[in-house]
Amino acid sequence: MLSYITFIPGVLAYLLANRRSVPFAFLRVYLPVVLLLPDYYRAITPGIPDPNFSQSAGVGLFIAYAMAGFPGFVFSATDLWVLFYAFCVGYSEYRASGYADAQNLIFGMLFGGIAPYVFAKGLIEPYGLRVVFAKVCVLCFSFVACVDVIETRLGFNAWRWLFDRFFPGQGQSWVTTFRFGLARAAGPYAHALLNGIMMLVAFRMQRWLEWTGAWPADWPARWRWMPIKPARMLTLIVTGGLVFSLAKGSWLASSVGATLTAVGRVKSHRFLAMVGILSALVLVGIPAAAGFIAYASVGRENAKDANQETSAYRYEMIEDYIDIAAQEPLWGWGLTKWPAIPGMASIDNHYLLLLLMHGRLAMVAFLYLLLGTMIRLVVYGMRQPPGGPRGGALSFTLAGIFVGYTIAIATVFMGQQTIPMFFMLVGWAESYMIRRTPEGGGTAIGPFNFRRVL
Fold first, then answer.
1. Which of 82, 126, 133, 424 is most open to solvent, judged by the fewest CB atoms within 10 Å of its CB?
2. Domain that holds residue 212
3. How many domains are there within the chain?
4. How far does Cα 248 stand from its chain's mean position?
């Protein structure tokens, strides 16, 4: 019965959405729940799907949003791709395991994929909440980064310490891992690699807020002794969160994403800047890829250190599991039904894992949402006249985040809160592009008094 606390966010989101407004509940309940409460805890409800905290909040908010008539939401072709992806994932698992086993995954796609997409698309840009949304995200991520210090220093997860007593046995599989002799902070995101992806998003959002001057220029009077300005302080905090994850894939992804974001900071000759950056990536990337293949293809038994052994494992994993994925090419094997290769239980590549679990149709839909959105953002940004402060181009900031996702999930599965975060980013990007909001726009507070509240 203690696990039924997962229903509290759903009830709270529904009540606030009706008593205040749907955007208010989205920012004050749904978003903090997604970013601060672990997704691996569920209420065990016999006969019906077992919701976690964010899914519960999604159900409550979605009901209220539907009752209001989905204000702000405008149909576009990307909606069909989101629905198609959700259908492929759900049907794949239903085909492999039957409804009784598939219901949690189907429920998760509805309220961990479709619903976050609908919320972001219908509420952020239409209500002028672009800056407020990013600020709430950064503040939540900053809190996580501060708590991460405890895990890095003491080697135990504060979220598990708090919630394990309500969900006996549910969090035990998510243990703290170590690298370089230090504990790798996972925060509320289950694993350090997933924490790295979330902090990558935090860093890019915060840099955009800092460049656009969205934070106060100085501290309140009683905090004037602080030697660092508020915006720079938040940047350092989320950077620390990214570092504490000790996730090398996310570090690399953040660096490559920054090169694309840098195009948005160019006031003139953006085309030349884009050509220069793409050329540099090709000139560096091709030799780097060839060198990595040579480094990783030696086999685990011939690896000279732990890093090379990890790379060799991933290389062998792709070679061996591609043949297994080809045996069920269209719909995949389902979540756990594929023949596991001894010694290769962990699939540390989301593209391969998706192909194994849900087949080529799901892969095509996912790649469109990931790479298609990224390419459209770059094209959209290149067509806009430079305006506002340097770095204020939201299109290149979002494109940089999608580049980060693209690289990071090649080293880890995309799970837990990285999924609703991904769909919120897709929904935000889609609404931003179809509404053609000026780069300097979208900062209105509207009738909800968010500035006073937040």
1. 126
2. 2-442
3. 1
4. 17
